[in-house]
Design brief:
270 residues
């Protein structure tokens, strides 16, 4: 089956955008752009971290290959505006659920080998966003697109709508894995009550557990896996502009999150 020029262009963008955005944010941080001034952790990257992350990123574009394969096999050929937005919405919803479920599963001892390469970065760089083991990328993308493929039997989804989600995801994920906070100090007053931030995911990497959500806080709140001092730390980073100085650093809060940590043995030393 032939692939349209528009679909091919979208897939090509999905293939390279992760590297383009990670490189952009890395360069901005290296040149000390004002956008990157509010550091989350006042700690250095591990030796050779960037080189390791770049090596791991070689297979990062596999999501475009898998999506293109589905398309060539006859999936995701919806071609109207309704199917575009329906596909984007379906991908947005399922990605949030699948990411949380698979992410938590990867933190169980029998499966942590799949995810441990990503967690070798305790302090995030923009390249952490594209640094995964081959198995983790394969499992996530097959789980995401395989479920959408099942939906496609009942309602023809649109490859451009799914690609639009990937484009959004790759743009946001590039600075969500960084060591600086872009959002405003008042972000958690409204949007931040529901959506995650760079600080939110940084706590997951430094503490190796909790804050599993992709773009929203809903499932972490539902399953009690959100770090209770997140908002206080966010205010410290954004309002006081005081970065954290230790991976184990905490802020005292009235109510502590119940101890639901599956992989506390992976928390690195301070």
């Amino acid at each position: 089956m032939n692939i349209s020029v528009l679909a091919l262009s979208a897939l090509a963008l999905v293939a390279v955008l992760g590297h383009v955005m990670a490189s952009l944010w890395y360069l901005l941080s290296q040149f000390q752009s004002r956008l990157c001034q509010r550091k989350i952790y006042d700690l250095p990257f591990r030796k050779d971290q960037i080189k390791r992350e770049l090596r791991n990123s070689i297979h990062a574009p596999m999501h475009a290959v898998i999506l293109g394969t589905f398309y060539l096999l006859g999936f995701f050929h919806g071609d109207d505006v309704v199917s575009f937005f329906a596909s984007f919405a379906a991908t947005l919803l399922w990605a949030e659920i699948w990411h949380y479920a698979s992410h938590r599963a990867f933190h169980l001892r029998p499966l942590h080998w799949i995810h441990v390469e990503h967690h070798r970065s305790h302090i995030n760089s923009p390249f952490t966003a594209i640094s995964f083991s081959f198995t983790e990328k394969l499992v996530f993308d097959l789980g995401l697109l395989g479920a959408l493929g099942i939906v496609d039997f009942a309602y023809s989804l649109n490859v451009l709508g799914i690609s639009a989600w990937y484009i959004m995801y790759l743009m946001i994920n590039s600075f969500s894995h960084a060591n600086f906070e872009l959002k405003s100090a008042r972000y958690n007053d409204l949007l931040g009550k529901f959506l995650t931030t760079t600080t939110y995911h940084s706590l997951h990497h430094s503490r190796h557990t909790g804050n599993y959500g992709l773009g929203t806080r809903f499932l972490d709140k539902l399953f009690n896996t959100e770090w209770s001092d997140y908002e206080a730390l966010y205010q410290r980073v954004c309002s006081d502009e005081r970065p954290l100085t230790s991976l184990r650093e905490r802020v005292e809060v009235p109510i502590l999150m119940p101890h639901t940590v599956e992989c506390s043995q992976f928390i690195p030393p301070a």
